[in-house]
Write a structure and sequence with these properties.
Elements: H1 2-19, E1 39-43, E2 46-50, E3 56-60, E4 77-83, E5 90-96
Antiparallel strand pairs: 1-2, 2-3, 3-4, 4-5
């Protein structure tokens, strides 16, 4: 069912936000000599990785080819979230066989304000 796929995608998005701080410099008050090491995690159908340059990537990787398809859709899809350093460093990449309609893109049921959607 489509809700199952959406739930898995949302779980991955939440996980990448939690891990996005992993590539940052230690906060003030941390013990001297504390270093931040690269991070790699598998959470459900998501692969998450952060390096020590403040860059994190989350990629939706279904377990098998059949899981690439939503239950009520024949088009395979994918999602990659990249978070670079800085306020403008967020990219969300959606891939699919069919065309993606920009007017159909929603965040919490509403069009994402101030976000530039681009088809490539």
């Amino acid at each position: 069912m489509m809700m199952t796929v959406v739930s898995r995608v949302l779980a991955g998005v939440c996980a990448v936000w939690m891990l996005a701080g992993a590539g940052r410099a230690p906060a003030a008050g941390w013990p001297a000599g504390t270093t931040i090491a690269p991070l790699y995690r598998e959470i459900g159908d998501w692969l998450l990785g952060c390096d020590n340059t403040r860059r994190c990537v989350a990629r939706y990787v279904p377990e098998d080819d059949g899981a690439l398809q939503a239950d009520d859709d024949d088009d395979p899809f994918g999602m990659t979230i990249v978070r670079e350093e800085g306020p403008l460093g967020l990219q969300v990449q959606l891939t699919g066989v069919g065309s993606l309609r920009r007017d159909a893109m929603r965040v919490d049921g509403r069009p994402a304000p101030g976000v530039e959607w681009r088809a490539t």
